[in-house]
Every structure is written in C-alpha cells, then in structure tokens.
Amino acid sequence: MRPEIVVDLAAIRRNVTTLKRLVAPAALMTVVKADGYGHGIVESARAARQGGADWIGVATVPEALVLREAGDEGPLLCWLTLPADAEDGSLSRAVEHGVDITAYTPERLDQIVAAGDCPRVQLKVDTGLARGGAALADWPALVARAAEHEQAGRARITGVWSHFACSDEPDHPANDEQQARFEQALARAEEAGLRPEVTHLANSAAAILRPSSRLDLVRVGLASYGLDPAPDVPHGTHLRPAMTVRAPLALSKAVARGEGVSYGHTWVADRDTTVGLVPAGYGDGVPRHGSNALEVAVDGVRRPVRGRVCMDQVVVDLGGDLPGAGAEVALFGPGDHGEPTAQEWAVACGTISYEIVTRIGGRLERRYEGNDE
C-alpha cells in the first residue's frame, strides 16, 4: 500500500440520485470543476450522469474540453472564460462541441459569438456576490445585445443565472435580496425578448435549504461528493462522502517525556509515549495549519497530530502503542471506521471541507471503487 486517495464512485451516483429526487421537478447540474473537487473530473462526471445528473458544470473552457474529449455529450456549462480561450482556439472548440458558455459583458458575448456558428450562451447576472456576472446597472445592455444576436441567428441564449453568497446561512437577509434581484433580472431579460431554456440560482446549500430558489435547474457541487454545504444547519438530507485518504504507517518509535516533536518543537511530550510517522504532508495537501490540531485513525483508533505538519510527513501520538510499519492510517473518510471526516479536518483547520478535498493530492495515487456501471 502507498499513500492514496480512494474515491467511491457509487457514493457519487447515490448522492446525485438523492439530490435529484429532492429538487424535482427542477433539473440537476453536478459541478465537477477543480478536477471534480479533487475526486477526478472525468470519473466524477461519468458517475454523476449515471446517477441522473441532467447537466454537468465546470469553471473553465479547458475543463469543458477535457469532458468532451472523454466522451461526455450531455448538456455542459462553463462560466469562466479568458481572452486566452479565444486566442488559442479553445473557445471555438467549445462552441463546436456544443458547450454552453457564460457571458458577463456585451464584449465577451461578442467574442463568444465570433468563435463559432450559433453558440449556446448563458448570461450571468451579479445579484450580490460581487464576483462574476453583469452588474445590475449593466444587465439591460447585456440582455439587449443578447437579444440582437439571437434574433439575427448568431447565438442561442440557453440560460440566465446567478449565484448566492450566503445560502449556507438560510436566515441571512442577502438570500431574499438576491432572489428578488434575480427575479427582476429575469423580467428584464423577458422584456428584451429572451426565452432561455433554463434559469438557475441555487447552489448546493440553496438546493437543500431554499426550495423557492430551485427554479428550472440547481447547480450542486460539494453535495454531489457527499459533503455537507451547510454543516451547521440541520436538514436531514443523507449524503455519503465519496473520498477516503489513506497511507501506511512508515515508522513507530518511543519518545520520552520532555522531548520535542517536529520543526520548532511546537509540541513537547508531557509523558513517555510513542509516535508514528505518516508519509503525507503539506506537499500532498495536508494543511500545515492543521499542525497540532488534526487527527487521523491508525488501525481504527483516533490519534492526534503532534508538532508541525511537514512537507512529506506528519507525526502522530500513538499513546504508547507500537503498531508496525504498514499499519493502515486513515487521514479522513466517511467516518465509518472511526476515522475523521473532511468536515472535521475543516473545523480543525478553520476552513471549509471544499478546501480540504480539493487541495489533497500531490504525490498521492488516486484509486476508484464502485465503478461497476
């Protein structure tokens, strides 16, 4: 055994099926950006389609092309285009492959239209995240230009969408404000003569917690992989984490009371104990800010990380036990066998589970289970 990431594709399929039933009659998009949130873009997209995903979503044009080249032929949306996409021909290839491409400005819309024959275009409006999308003041100009292109047969406007900023906090006033602004933006698009195939606003948390925002389509990223997008809000949707990270123990040895462990001696043994060496570190995505905070499971027993996380390894307190080299260490997983979850690692590091699963990798091998469909 070598350090590895094990991805349960059956869990992804089941999660997507569960979410699709929850949001019906809205359609469901599984988002596989950032290499499928660390789970593998092609494999995750295939499992999501098998689980019933109507759409797949990616951030970038190159990500969309990876999926098309791997054989995905279903509805596919990307939303983060760059000038380089037009310069190197990627945008033209995406248009040729029927990828829905998002426009934020009239200028970018014109660039997409120039990239190929009647591209499929979606328009994004910024309703309060202040990230991608047309500002409300600029929205009328964008929908007017889009209507011109569509009426002239130069483009097909397939969708209008936006993105919540605070959907994991269901009582946050921004949620109502954003949904109201989105409805106003839809009305302006209709006045301009646009009749998109889909309108969508809800991300994972909103899809679960805010039924009124489901509209025609929901975009589900994190939840497709079995991680809770709103871990502090009870909701009863049962999802299974698809990722387990494992490594063999490299070494165990005794450490005397008073000895310091790892760089800077930020942990000093307060008793005679034993420690184990786990061959994965921040070079593999184990957060350095998890030093003296993370836990792992060694042969099913929780063990705390002691001292600083190093580039290639971490040290864990074995409490006097001396398991042999090769003993299984579960860094995180679904929690079935006492191992921490990605959410627990996120809490320990003061971050979110999104970051934990997307950062893990480096030299870790990725292996797939449940690939029987």
From TrEMBL:
One example of a Gene Ontology biological process annotation: D-alanine biosynthetic process
Keyword set, alphabetical order: Isomerase, Pyridoxal phosphate
Protein residues bound to substrate: 131, 311
InterPro entries with a match to the protein in the record: Ala_racemase, Ala_racemase/Decarboxylase_C, Ala_racemase_C, Ala_racemase_N, Ala_racemase_pyridoxalP-BS, PLP-binding_barrel
Pathway as given in its UniProt record: Amino-acid biosynthesis; D-alanine biosynthesis; D-alanine from L-alanine: step 1/1
Recorded superkingdom: Bacteria
Listed Pfam families: Ala_racemase_C (PF00842), Ala_racemase_N (PF01168)
Sites of N6-(pyridoxal phosphate)lysine modification: 33
Active site: residue positions: 33 (proton acceptor), 263 (proton acceptor)
PANTHER family xref list: ALANINE RACEMASE, ALANINE RACEMASE, CATABOLIC-RELATED
Family to which this protein belongs: Belongs to the alanine racemase family.
Its biological purpose: Catalyzes the interconversion of L-alanine and D-alanine. May also act on other amino acids.
Name under which the protein is recorded: Alanine racemase
Lineage: Bacteria, Bacillati, Actinomycetota, Actinomycetes, Propionibacteriales
Protein encoded by which gene: alr
